[in-house]
Amino acid sequence: MSGLQQLFYLHGVGYDYVKYTGEHVIFDQNTRSQALQACGIDTNDEQIIAELNYQLDVVQWQSVVPEVSLVDAHCSTLSIKVPAHNRVTHGVISVRTINYEHNFDTAHLKVTGEYYYDNITYLELEVPLPPMPIGYHDAVISLPWGQYNTQIWSTPNQCFNPIEKKQLGISVQLYTLKSERNLGIGDFLDLEALIIASAKSGCDFVLLNPLHLLFPDEPDRASPYSPNHRGLINPLYISLDNCRWAHDSDEYNALLEAASKLLETQKQEQYINYSLISDVKHSVLQGLYKGFKSHAPEDLKTQFICYQSEQSTLLTGLKGDGFAVFCQWLASRQLQRCQEVAKRSGMSVGLINDLAVGCAEDGIEYIENSQLYAGNANVGAPPDPWAEGGQNWGLPALDPVKIKHNQFSFFKTLVRSNLNYVGGLRIDHVMALRRLWWCLQVEQEQSGCYVYYPFEHLMAILKIESNIAQSMIIGEDLGVVPPEVVTSMKEASLFGNILFYFEKDHHGNFVPRDCLREDTILMVANHDVPPFKGWWYGDDLQLKYTYNLITERELGTEQQKRSVERQRLLTWLSEHGKNGLTQSSESDAIYQALLIVLASSPSKLLCLQLDDLDFQSLPVNIPGTDKEYPNWRRRLTHSIDDIFAEHAHFIKNLTDIRTGHE
Q: 34 and 83: one domain?
């Protein structure tokens, strides 16, 4: 193997992949070289290549322990590496976090691997350890020739999994919620109302859109999947009339009333005016902050100080901006209260948060961690039936080697912050734990290849943090999923994600209900596909034509395909005992029949999209568009109370089926 080929392998640059058509594609060397160059590596310098290969390969054997040592929490053995000529050696392991010290003799340890370099044989040995608490433990290994530090990750076999019975839940884009009291955008008090209504109907969870911080100075950048910072919360979700300590302030109440009147007309419109709402809400928030500094009870001020101390790492990017930090504290308090309401209302899971696959290249998260990212590389997806040219999501790509910096502190903090105050976390594009498609510019043309990440370590962090937070993990595994990811998800009790629209066999027929996966969250639709009403009537196709996303000829072709799909759905329903429905049937009748069948599926989690219960036909997002369509702005038509009053019997029927009480 040449030096460059070895570096491709050691740095995670892929060699090939199987396209959705079944074609075996081998990446050309120019593309693979560009991936390394994006990581700051001069692929024309043989000396640099040789040095990197030495660091990534040989040094791993010359080091007694790596910076991070993965250890099974239930059957603990620590791997160390020593030269064979030092095999008979006495050593001591000291684990600081649990005040444990263990003496060992390398002569009696099991050999699990060996490596030969420069006339020296290195042995990998297993040192038995006692079971350790789940988490990260700093340890020192003392040998006659020196001391070596490592962080032992005591890792459980599985993520936390509270699911003992089949459950029903609701998915919602929080900003779309409509109410008399909010300021034009769904907020945490609206979320409380949704939780209470859902729990009364027998639901066990509410799945949210990403709540990540966006761009206060550029409010029209509304996509929750291209955020400013994934560890911080969007202040627009703060309920300004839910700050009890401010209720006695006439000045604040007047400010709030004026804001409500100013937004009264905008609240009735179909689409959110982010510029107007952001200006108004931030103005009221500034007034709230001013009043907090002057009049808040001392115990609240103490809590605010404690929050800043506890979250100092997460808040670094805000650079001491007192107002911005105050907004984060307030948002986290209200989110925590929502989860408490969910648990008090009887939900077994409560809130499920959503973690976007990446951040914007000009955002706080990227700027604070730019040293961990590759340059001139964006993440996306290879060609597929919905995007033959592939997809470039415009998000910067993490360097698979640099992400290991400081014992993976970046990824630990990211996961931990998104598990705060929730019962579960959905990870968008979970395949990114294993590999990501890098979009690269090669000889002034778009190209791309897969780059692989330290999967075992990233999965270990998920399992550890999930168990510490007592929150379940869901991986959005739609698309082409590497076999090793499928296996690892199952072994780790990491739930998958099914969209019914896509569950078809090789003939294009919808798969039988009883063949749907068990450990998964099953949904008819999500934010990237049309609501069921829009799908059934083909409104999404007409919408694409209206916005010049398809030609008139393509519209006709797609409408014919949709007619075939609708008939296949009717056939599927008939095969599952739902007869008498035709292509002329109302969408709601088809939808309810579909959900009643799916309620008996093996899937542990069944999720109703609030958009579908609101009879929406317009999507919140059309993938592949930016400003052509008003993405992430469409409001719901009805209030939470009206939606649940309309569907109370239907939802109760579904929960009865799920729990076996039909």
A: no
